[in-house]
Amino acid sequence: CNNRIVIAQRKHLDDFVRGRIIVRLECGRTQLEVSEELGIAQSVISRLWQRFQDDGNVSRCYSTGRPRVTTPNEDRYLAVIAKRNRRSTASDLSRQLSSATGTTVSRQTVYRRLGHIGLYARTPVRCVPLTATHCRLRLAWNREHALWTPQQWSCVMFSDESRFSLQSDSRRTLIWRAPGTRYHQKNTIERHRYGGAGWLVWGGIILGSRTDLHVQSVTMTGHIYRDVILEQHVRLFRGAMGA
Q: Does one domain contain both 158 and 50?
């Protein structure tokens, strides 16, 4: 009959149990006898006894994990160069850090270090550039119509068009930014030209109603806007609404 106790789940031994094991072994007990008495695997007792004979210590050594590659100063340097050039890739930042300090880190380390201070690689917002004249005229128009009544607005049609590109123009360009700063000016890219094939969708709204959507695949020109949008959509719609 085998009286050995099988341990189903591994658990760490505290210093008191370790001391009991060493005392029994020093008193002449065999490792097998101590294993059966205390219900501890013989391999554990063997390693503990070997360690006690090597350095006289039986306390458990707590590992602090892998040593940190970068120093706090190097972490701050990564943050500075990432904010200075927000379109830098993790590989670019790693090379700049290595060139400046001699410390080589992986792309994943760069992501972790910047993530600790709240910087993450995100797609930038693209917007149409506005000049100072655009801003001034828009502000003047808003102030002029700020007190209009619903009856006055009911005679006004608002229209807009959106272009949907059939191919990506971002080239996976990312920027480093903090959460909640998506629409900050420093995190946007001004763009008014979009290359490649795409579809343009136009639509108009008026108080209580809207037009049908107009979809076209060709470039919107002045002639197309006059002959198609104004004649076939705006004029007919306003006539039907009695505006």
A: no
- Expressed as residue numbers, the domain containing 184 is 125-144+151-241
177 exposure class (CB count in 10 Å sphere: 0-12, 13-18, 19+) = buried
* pLDDT tier, 4 (very low <50, low <70, confident <90, very high otherwise): very low
Identify which of 114, 129, 113, 124 has the alpha carbon closest to the alpha carbon of residue 87: 124
Contact at 8 Å (CB) between 15 and 46? Answer: no
User: pLDDT digits over 82-103, tens only?
Assistant: 999 999 999 999 999 999 999 9
Kindly state the helix (H) or strand (E) to which residue 209 belongs, with its residue range: strand 209-210
Alpha helices in 4-106 (DSSP H): 15-26, 31-38, 42-55, 72-84, 90-101
Q: E strand or H helix at 236, and its extent?
A: helix 236-241
